[in-house]
Fold this protein.
Amino acid sequence: MTFTALAFAIASRCGLVNIGAEGQFYLGGIAAGLVAIYAPGLGIPVIGGAVVLVLAIIAGFIAGGLWGLIAGWLKVSFGANEVITTVMLNYIASFLNKYLIGYDGPFYDGSGNPQSEAFKVSFERGFFIQNSDMTITIVLAILALVFYFIFFFKMKKGYEMRVVGLNSTAAEYAGIKVKSNALLAMFMAGGFGGLAGVSELLSAQSRILPDFSSGYGFDGVAVALLGQLHPLGMGLSAILFAVLKSGGLAMGNKGTISPYIVNAIQAFVIILVVASVFVQDEYNRRKLIRQAKAPKEE
Amino acid sequence: MAPILEMKNIVKQFPGVLANDNVNLTVEKGSIHALMGENGAGKSTLMNILYGLYAPSSGQILFNGQEIQITSPKHAIEHGIGMVHQHFMLIPALSVIENVILGRPENKKVLDLKTDAEAFVALGARYSMKIDPYELIENLTVGQQQRVEILKSIYRGAELLILDEPTAVLTPQEVTELFKIMTQLKEEGKTIIFISHKLKEVLTICDTITVLRLGKSQPSVPSAGTTREELAEMMVGRKVFLNVDKGPYNPGESVLKMENVFTKGIHGALNDVSLDIRKGEILGIAGVDGNGQDALIESITGLDKVTQGHIFIKGNDMTNATPRQVLEQKVSHIPADRHKRGMVSTMSIKENMILISYYKEPYQKFGFLNWKFIEETSEEIVKRFKVKTPNIQELGGKLSGGNQQKMVLGRELSRDPDLCIAAHPVRGLDIGATEYVHECLVAERDKGNAVLLVSTELDEVLTLADRIAVMYEGRIMGILEKEEFDITRIGMMMAGQNQ
């Protein structure tokens, strides 16, 4: 979820609304999945699967990135609203996945169920904590957040992108290329959406299945907003949402409590966060009034 | 004569701002009374209270000796108070007469336009104004629209007329026309409140002057015997130097040359513009707003495509260069709309300071921004250009208008430009900040740099410029040398006439 949150956050920083993490998730997952299935058979040396996994990660990033780039390209060439195009691309991605592993698809395993062959390699479980489901992706997620912070607040390109996002006419005036920044932002955003797909598939699944994303792309939007696009905030809110999501599933399995109670809790969290913004505004307003009443020197 | 209007101890409290603080205003019947003050001094608030748009927090309004409560503009009109807003309240797609009778309570179910039209034309004739009552507002010039607004108020029975910055949009000739009408109205016993910040105009036309400063009213003074310096001092609260000291005029070689430039432009196109700016001079661009000034600047700075012609900067062909290529020719640009172009309000001051240069060393190295260096430079610019702020982490948008402009100015001038393009550099600034910005621009000129100054304030251009180019509908009507500066001639050119 950290990754899909980043997919939203990166685009946001450049003034774009990327609702397409869901689609980018699929594309990244598919690409990584295919690498995990077929690459070992192509004579690529399997050193504990590590090389293949790195390839899978790269493939996932690029596939998701290109998927994001489509929306970016439509935006800068035709002015197509990226909210709409990314949502449309989500459907396309989901159905593309269903086709690829469906009965007529090229990657159907012939088992009678719409699914691909099993992955030859995947992330090892029990990373850091033994016997847990935790994999190396937690490290990737933290690295991604660190990258996000450094990129936007320490690097020239990230600064450029933020100027474009906050005031594109000022960016133009300063000689910053608005369009190429938008394209790059959508590619990076899509890439992180793709990484989300990679980490889900290669950690929690053993083969590509239809609808393998249970709404992670959309959860990412909530996580990013809850974290107020701040790297630390997004990390924490991703943990919160992930705990709620898997906790909800566990509760559902026990059968006594509806797993949907989790959705209600998430909604509460979001409402409270939004409300806190209002409280903050009100506080600032009162502070201003107090300052104005105090004797002023100009 | 008895006062027609007395506003006593008016207080208006907005959330966070005390806009009017015990303001007193007494206006004699049959006089022209000026209301002056810097931006944010509370002029508009006071007038909006009088016109019924705001309710005062406390205070008293006496009209013709009687205390009244004005709760809406309709109410104000019934009492005989009319207002001509800075941005006219006319509907462009309707005819003159339709606008005049709009919202009048005596309108019948079926409109009788003809009677009103005749009466309105007759009224216009009294002030030697020819008006076609059936012409659409959108076909009128700005000056004509303003006259319709004034007549509309008179027609609807205004005894007291509020004119909010009426000269801001007019050519000098139109201003003369307006003043004629105002004088005639005064002779007929009408009263006018004239809101302006132009010292000269106020001293020419008004009888009495009330200055507002920081929401408080200063005691009124008669305009006879008051000097511009005294007025400016009342507005700012300290001594102000209205005249700028310039060094001798020694123009050097050409810095910017435009040859027969045409644009298609979004903001009014350029039509065969040729001009040339030399080192050590300020070229002023005069003209009524919207006559191609924006297109001129955008074509030079690479923001707008040139369809024909050539632009040379220091001899290099920069026609249709990218904005960055132009900026790299040591061109500084203080944009007309600082919020839109010049700064990012939601970024901190230090982030705004590197807007143009962030990609250069030592601002960045290997793709990483060098915050330590950036902070040092920003501190220095803030100090040198007297930007008032608690620290450089403050968001640009939190600064006052004057300080925002100083921030932009500081960033642009500290890049040591050869050519400085300043578009409306003092728009919306108070006298103190204006004085400072002007000093900086003249200092650039005296250092031997070229300055292109675009302004709609003719006085500003006349004081600062060494030569003046007048623009009208995307064309340069002519370029005048210093000895040819003549308000009448410039005014004619601003209106598109050239003898």
Chain B touches chain A at residues 15-18, 214, 301-303, 322-327, 333, 335, 340-347, 351, 354-356, 358-359, 364, 367-369, 371 (CB under 8 Å). DSSP finds 17 helices and 23 strands in chain B.
